[in-house]
Write a structure and sequence with these properties.
single chain, Porin, 2 domains
């Protein structure tokens, strides 16, 4: 320890003494070393002024005060340091006090923490929303092939990556075509897949499933009885669509969309017609309804974005 303090004193004191004023040294209390030893160490680097010189402005007043136990405090003006001399012999303790005193006189010592700077608190930055719940009325064409259908839909979107979303939507579709042929047709459109969202625009692709019910397709004339056809089935295919999301505030989104469902299978339903005089014209088959390979759709809706 003594060797370390000697090395530190020899290296630091020449740097600290450059350009420093004279010091008026005042020692209070019983220190573990002699007053003369401290004066000689300080004189190596600073001129020591006589008592009263600080009041005339000719010197800087420094006070070395004995504390409790082996602690010593050094004060120069408003700057103050404390040191523990435990496990140090007399000369090593004097060298440590002299080194701290020169630090304070040179102004290199840190100021006491009278003003504590408050840490800067960064505002919490929320990420983009992670979920979207939406409702929208859709209009699908060629459902069945010679008609259109109104389809109220509900949907859920989940952000998988920054620009990649997974989505699922389902609804209910009804169509009643009144002409010479009447065929109530109901279905449940279900679509799911992935979406690429860039700014306001969203390109979708995925799977389209449409279970349907044919509730009594029939052909009728005033003089003939009804001939009913009832059936149910499922169409499975693909879907692709483009959607535009217009945010209103942080949580509300208004969106418009258009797309098309593609189905590989197509079902045709027919009934038999009979002439009033079967002997002359007999009977023949009349198609009354068919599902479609291509089902275009458009819609408007509103959504709520949450998470982030």
């Amino acid at each position: 320890m003594r060797t370390s303090l000697l090395i530190i004193t020899a290296m630091v004191l020449p740097c600290l003494a450059h350009g420093t004023p004279a010091v008026e040294l005042e020692i209070q209390g019983d220190l573990p070393f002699a007053r003369q030893e401290l004066l000689e160490l300080v004189r190596l680097r600073l001129p020591v002024a006589p008592a009263g010189a600080s009041r005339k402005g000719h010197a800087t007043r420094a006070v070395v005060r004995a504390g409790t136990g082996d602690r010593v405090s050094i004060q120069v003006g408003s700057r103050r340091r404390e040191a523990s001399l435990t496990d140090l012999d007399r000369l090593a303790g004097a060298r440590l006090v002299a080194l701290l005193l020169l630090d304070l006189v040179s102004g290199d010592a840190p100021r006491p923490p009278s003003v504590v700077a408050r840490p800067r608190v960064e505002p919490v930055r929320r990420g983009p929303p992670r979920f979207l719940f939406g409702i929208s009325p859709r209009f699908s064409f060629r459902v069945p092939e010679d008609g259109y259908a109104v389809e109220p839909m509900v949907e859920l979107e989940v952000r998988v990556y920054r620009w990649l979303w997974a989505w699922l939507e389902a609804g209910y579709s009804w169509n009643t075509h009144s002409d010479m042929y009447d065929h109530p047709y109901d279905s449940i459109p279900i679509r799911t897949g992935l979406a690429l969202r860039l700014s306001w625009f969203e390109l979708r692709g995925g799977l389209a499933i449409r279970p349907y019910w044919l509730g009594g397709a029939r052909s009728w004339y005033s003089e003939q009885p009804l001939y009913d056809v009832e059936d149910r089935g499922v169409q499975v295919g693909g879907t692709i669509g483009l959607r535009v999301n217009v945010p209103i505030g942080r949580w509300l989104v208004v969106h418009g969309m258009a797309g098309v469902d593609l189905f590989p299978q197509r079902e045709v339903y027919s009934v038999w017609e009979y002439c009033s005089d079967p002997a002359s014209c007999g009977s023949y088959e009349v198609p009354v309804m068919s599902t479609s390979h291509v089902v275009p759709w458009v819609g408007l809706g509103i959504g709520f974005q949450v998470g982030g």
